[in-house]
Amino acid sequence: MTSKKLLKQQPFKNKMALICGASEGIGFATAKEIIKLGGSVCINARREEKLREAKEKLEDFKVEEAQFIESISCDATNREKLKPLIEKFIETHGIPDLLINVVGTALPNYIEKYTLDDFKQHMDINYYGQLVPTLILLPHFQERKRGHIAFVASVAAFIGLIGYTAYTPTKAAIVGLAETLKNELSPYNIDISVVFPPDTDTATFERENRMKPEECKLISERAGLLQPEEVVEPLIEGIIKKKFYITPGEAGWMFWAKRHFPKLVFNILEKDLKKARKRLGKSTDY
Question: What is the pLDDT of residues 30-64, one digit of tens each?
């Protein structure tokens, strides 16, 4: 829920955000929050119909007539097609103040059932889908010497769990990208943030649950499920405060535990896996 203090302050008034992967879920909730806080947005997604529906819904949250909501229907991994569309937007509206990369997917499976193409697909969407918009906007941010880029990683970026062998490395790569850019772009006054959502109630997560290995389903039973708004609230506050690591919900203590007690975390995960396999009648002698 948007705080009354932020609603009163309108911290994004006269600012623009380009949000890639914004037709639903965390991306849509982020666009909604920025609009409620006085900003304008350009939302990007592949499916034109979903994007049109999202744009219509977002209109209801405008607080001033001067705000605008634009959309770009394009695969965020396709630099050749996306770049001229973003450049055209910039010609019309100017350089965005924020780039928020939410593009991502997860297709859980057992390692032996993945093909090499499955790994490439995860990397293409989860890594290049956030890298490409960044590379397009970066020269504008560098020339202006101002901007803010936010990446959406995952708790899976620092905790590897059965079923996510193709997904976790891509989110770890996003963190590596963010950390490198934070250092390299500091002379340009470009801020970087990376958010680590735990399990979040989105259409993507619903599909994940249908595909998860049975052990993974059992291990995940005790984990909580955040709503997209519960991820977006700390994300927006983190962007306003120019925080680098943003850890919604239980991600905070999980991040701390993995950094300070990695062996303990590994032991807990291994015990959880053995318990799950035992419940499924599978061997635990290994």
Answer: 999 999 999 999 999 999 999 999 999 999 999 99
| SS3 category, 48 | helix
In the CATH hierarchy, which top-level class contains the domain 10-279? alpha beta
The CA angle 281-201-170, to the nearest 5 degrees, is 75
Q: How high is the pLDDT of residue 1?
A: 62
Domain ranges of the chain: 10-279
Structure pTM? 0.94
User: pLDDT of 170-228, one tens digit each?
Assistant: 999 999 999 999 999 999 999 999 999 999 989 888 888 889 999 998 988 777 789 99
Rounded distance between C-alpha atoms, residue 15 and residue 159, angstroms = 35
pLDDT at 220: 85
User: d(Cα 266, Cα 257) in Å, to the nearest integer?
Assistant: 11
Long-range CB contacts (within 8 A, 24+) of 90-97? 90/140, 93/16, 93/40, 93/42, 93/68, 94/16, 95/137, 95/140, 95/141, 95/144, 95/147, 96/16, 96/17, 96/18, 96/42, 96/137, 96/147, 97/15, 97/16, 97/17, 97/146, 97/147, 97/148
Instruction: Say how many Å lie between the first and final Cα of the chain, rounded.
Output: 47
Helix axes 48-58, 25-36, angle to 10 degrees: 30
What rounded mean pLDDT belongs to the chain?
Answer: 95
For residues 50 and 52, what is the distance between their CA atoms, to the nearest angstrom? 5
